[in-house]
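Reopening closed ticket. The problem is back. First fold of the pair:
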Amino acid sequence: MWKWLHPYAKPEKSYQLAGKLLPWFACLCLITFMVGLTWGLLFAPADYQQGDSFRIIYIHVPAAMLAMLAYSSMAIAAFIGLVWQIRLSEMMVATTAPIGAVFTFIALVTGAAWGKPMWGAWWVWDARLTSELILLFVYLGIIALYNAFSDKDLAGRAASILTLVGVINLPIIHYSVVWWNTLHQGATISKFDTPSMAPEMLWPLLMMIFAFSLFFIVLLLMRFRNEILARENHRYWVTQLVIHKFKDKI
């Protein structure tokens, strides 16, 4: 059943597939971002307690969710790479880590901007905030470890192992507002419960989560293609690709 996936274990095939998908995801990402931001920042009603300052959730919440989603995808790729020895999975770990780190940084910065008017401080050692900061450090550690080795095959395995070790932080982040008495508010959107947001605020938030997800895929495809070229630069097909690109520019 999975035989159709086998050709894409080859870097050349995966590079070509990523190139075909990239324009479609990029266009859809641009459209959803424009709709989501306009809807959330201009048309969603102000919160009765927080006023217009609540609108930062249209950046903060999607960024925080994608920070965890990016790490989850890294962990899956790391597991596949270590168990089935698929080099592309290890490349995916190295590709995703900087993107996840940026999303985590955005979540922390926007959270601090939101916390200042709500809590009276830019930063508090809240369980959710602290575990999110640890996630950023884990991302940076994976990036540093991967770049510490000249042998990228060894670097990929080391980064994959560290990624799987860091998975323990994900449930801590998610359940921190349940396990501990924290300043951070609980889940607004739940799979099993009725959302605590008004639909006029919820729908633009869902749109922005979708837009951020598409943005993550766009960045992932772009970096994945670059990583393949960097790791496969000694291959004949990469040489031919560079020659054709150079001729097109001439």
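Second fold of the pair, where the issue appears:
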Amino acid sequence: MLEQIGLRALRVLDPERAHGLALTALNAGLGPRGGAWSSARLQTEVAGMKLPNPIGLAAGFDKNATALTALGKTAFGFLEIGAATPRAQPGNPKPRLFRLTKDQAVINRFGFNNNGMEAIAQRLSQRPQGRVIGLNLGANKDSTDRAADFAKVLAHCGTYVDFATVNVSSPNTEKLRDLQGKDALKSLLKSVVDKREECRLSVPIFVKIAPDLSTQELLDIAAVAADLPALDGIIATNTTLDRDMLCGPHRDETGGLSGQPLFEKSTRVLAQLAQLTDKPIIGVGGVGSAEQAYEKIRAGASAVQLYTALVFQGMSLATTIAQGLDTLLARDGFKNVADAVGSGRGDWL
């Protein structure tokens, strides 16, 4: 009840200010305290990472690793912070975050605003232990070699994280999505995994892709993944530029759309990709209930992430989804999450 009162109060504020206050409230102890919710059915392993449950917090909520201790007390099975770039940057001009309450969605055009890898690495060095924490790697907007930026951030922060994500799919940095092309992506990912080897790091490397890709582009990504055995997995998907599914105000704002309208599109991309690669996939996009998390898993995801739904339902949603997913797995006779992965992929093809 207190959470719902707080959410209603935050929703009358500017969205970006409300987000900052939500982080402040978490750090003040006004959030969940029970830790990761788990059961024998929910425990799973993804790219060598042992997870208490497959429900993760997506990148973007805690860009600067300022709320790690508080987030460590939530029910999430794993956390991803960032994106971090080599140098601090302010991002795009405000306003740059828009709530679409009628659509249960958000549009953002932040542009990788963050404190930079040095400040973020310092906070990560004091991270809570016993939690799986990843870092979303980004590139500076004015960089002359954006591909090198990803490897630079990994080298600086990799000691303190359990996995890293190469984010080439944000629509808010000009020409960043061009790095998803077959040759460019292969070169970029090879430089990142080579840097991991050079630095003697053991962190799994994921690549995060857009939902706005053609069948041929998905084939190219699968081919790149096959050519790079050292790449550990794929995160599908980031935000979309599509606006066809919207009915509320702000629909014409530029930026990436996340939330409920993205669920079907991102899940179809996930299912197609799961048919093309053996790499583990983390499903993101429109997850706001246990049923939707379960659909992502049945479509081929080994784990899922969410963020936008927290804006409308609060941090306790992680507990609700984890408990609900456990019930759904039991209902359908699955002994564990891994047994359910891909079991309903055909429904999305």
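Update: turned out to be a display glitch only; the data is intact. The two ends are 40 Å apart (CA to CA). The chain is about 35% helix and 15% strand. Please close again.
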